[in-house]
Automatic annotation (TrEMBL):
Organism: Labeo rohita (Indian major carp)
Chemical reaction(s) catalysed: L-seryl-[protein] + ATP = O-phospho-L-seryl-[protein] + ADP + H(+); L-threonyl-[protein] + ATP = O-phospho-L-threonyl-[protein] + ADP + H(+)
SUPFAM superfamilies from the UniProt entry: Protein kinase-like (PK-like)
Keyword vocabulary terms for this entry: ATP-binding, Kinase, Nucleotide-binding, Serine/threonine-protein kinase, Transferase
KW Nucleotide-binding (keyword) present: yes
Keyword Nucleotide-binding in record: yes
Name this protein carries in UniProt: non-specific serine/threonine protein kinase
Length: 204
């Protein structure tokens, strides 16, 4: 289980040497880093807590709770959380092959069917596992599927919109990426969490 360590800003540099930026969002930046003692490369999601409103703060803590809960070969692992006065650092497993969106864009003639089935099955296994733990991702899209080429795997990442659900009870929060949202979410209706997750997965 990932632990939460508290310290002062800059403490991250004592544990991890930060390198280039891998991605950027509204409140966070993802950086490549290396553990100073083991040399292991990781991805570090750096969240600026000073820019978060109440809703965003709730999403952040929900993301950490859900990622601590899910432990699966096809889900990017959260190693630890480092909490400082102004920033939260999520230390994540690092993929070595980019994300699925970039992969699709590089193959203009499409993917080999057998390979596509293999990757799709892995994504479905990850989603099914989450739903068994009553966790819904709510932002399924190619950009959130990362390649681990040495392992021959794809893994689901970015649980920023994830949430826990109770079977039989519907959710109401409108969230996720507009282009990949299920009709219920676009219409502002209540929705069944697992059904929406499957709908989004099959929409691509």
């Amino acid at each position: 289980m990932a632990g939460i360590k508290r310290g002062y800003d800059g403490k991250i540099a004592g544990l991890y040497d930060l390198d280039k930026t891998l991605g950027r969002g509204h409140f966070a930046v993802v950086k490549l880093a290396r553990h100073v003692f083991t040399g292991e490369k990781v991805a570090v999601k750096v969240i600026d807590k000073t820019k978060l409103d109440t809703v965003a703060t709730g999403h952040l803590f929900q993301e950490v709770r859900c990622m601590k809960l899910v432990q699966h070969p096809n889900i990017v692992r959260l190693y630890e959380v480092i909490d400082t006065q102004t920033k939260l650092y999520l230390i994540l497993e690092l993929g070595d092959g980019g994300d699925m969106f970039d992969y699709i864009m590089k193959h203009e003639e499409g993917l080999n069917e057998e390979l596509a089935k293999k990757y799709f099955a892995q994504i479905v296994h990850a989603i099914s596992y989450c739903h068994r733990l009553h966790v819904v991702h709510r932002d399924l899209k190619p950009e959130n599927v990362v390649f681990f080429e040495k392992q021959g795997l794809v893994k689901l990442t970015d649980f920023g919109f994830s949430n826990k659900f109770q079977p039989g009870k519907k959710l109401t929060t409108s969230c996720g990426s507009l282009a990949y949202s299920a009709p219920e979410i676009l219409l502002g209706d209540e929705y069944d969490a697992p059904a929406v997750g499957k709908c989004v997965c099959n929409s691509g």
